[in-house]
Design goal:
Helix content: 25-40%
Number of helices: 14
Distance between the termini: 92 Å
Structural class: mainly alpha
Radius of gyration: 31 Å
């Protein structure tokens, strides 16, 4: 008991809270093994850290040593091979910038367990090797982003050695890459009659979304809401207006499907049925138009063409003093 009190007083005097906790929880007889395990764990973390330390300098074997066996894994022609950029692997430790010191791997006869391989590591752990450098601008919010939380790693979309498209992606194009997971969304772009000019090559998924992380919803590149993102191109619809239209003020996607639709102007439903989702008690026929109305009513002109917007042309909002009904 006297020995324990002495150790506790020494721990307090040295400011060692971790040692004090170990003594109180497991007793003096197991304090040394606990400390040894902590030191071993720290050593493991240091050995697998992407940032080289001074004591690791002797463990680097050089890129030429790597290519003597992995001659097909050269990354020439990619952004990683630009020596003029001091942040690239080519300007630092070459292959070992991403894979860690290779001396143990070489001495072990090429044992894959003795080298880091982001492509075979768990996605979040493998991404840590990449965000050590790719931590600026559009990559700044990757940790904790929607893709990161869903176990999508950098190596899920990018290839450092055998890229097929721009930005070292694994597919020939950005849309094809996104389609590997978001097939339903991409099918709208490819097959719907009205669509964003994605299949014509004038836009891509990253025109609206930052796939590496965003501070707003839906990984949007601009604004904090869907409406603000749409208004970055459709500025004439931004508002505010003297007379606001409630579904427009709520979100553009209330009426439009931004990924594609078979209706005019990418509407989620055909007019006048889209309008009648809300306007069911107006002065116009409050029921869905049918063949009887088409043949026997003077309101038949409201079922064809632009329908309701023939008269209510300022449907996104009006600044006219008499524009309560959004008339043209």
């Amino acid at each position: 008991m006297r020995t324990t009190d002495h150790l506790v007083r020494c721990a307090i005097g040295a400011g060692s809270f971790s040692l004090l906790t170990s003594l109180l929880l497991v007793g003096p007889g197991t304090a040394q093994p606990t400390a040894a395990r902590a030191a071993a764990a720290g050593g493991t973390r240091a050995a697998t850290s992407r940032v080289p330390t001074a004591q690791d300098a002797a463990n680097y074997v050089g890129q030429d040593s790597c290519l003597s066996c992995h001659e097909t894994q050269d990354y020439k022609g990619t952004g990683h091979a630009l020596k003029t950029n001091p942040r690239t692997p080519a300007a630092t430790q070459g292959c070992e910038s991403c894979h860690g010191p290779g001396k143990a791997h070489v001495d072990g006869g090429g044992d894959p367990a003795l080298i880091l391989n982001p492509g075979t590591m768990p996605p979040q752990r493998g991404s840590e090797q990449c965000v050590g450098c790719h931590n600026r601008k559009e990559h700044a919010l990757w940790p904790g982003s929607q893709h990161d939380q869903r176990n999508v790693g950098c190596a899920s979309c990018h290839s450092s050695h055998t890229p097929k498209g721009p930005a070292q992606i694994k597919a020939a194009g950005e849309t094809a890459l996104c389609a590997t997971c978001h097939q339903g969304v991409v099918n709208k772009h490819r097959n719907r009659f009205n669509h964003m000019p994605v299949r014509e090559g004038k836009m891509s998924c990253s025109s609206c979304h930052n796939v590496h992380g965003s501070a707003n919803l839906k990984l949007l590149t601009y604004g904090t809401t869907v409406a603000q993102s749409c208004a970055s191109c459709h500025a004439e619809k931004r508002g505010p207006y003297l007379w606001e239209h409630a579904p427009v003020a709520n979100a553009c996607v209330t009426c439009h499907d931004p990924h594609g639709s078979n209706n005019d102007r990418m509407l989620v439903a055909k007019q006048p049925f889209l309008c009648q989702r809300c306007h069911v008690t107006s002065r116009h026929p409050p029921t869905v138009y049918d063949a009887f109305v088409l043949k026997n009513s003077q309101n038949a002109n409201k079922i064809t063409g632009r329908s309701c917007t023939v008269c209510h042309a300022q449907i996104h909002g009006s600044n006219a003093p008499s524009g309560k009904a959004f008339l043209r």
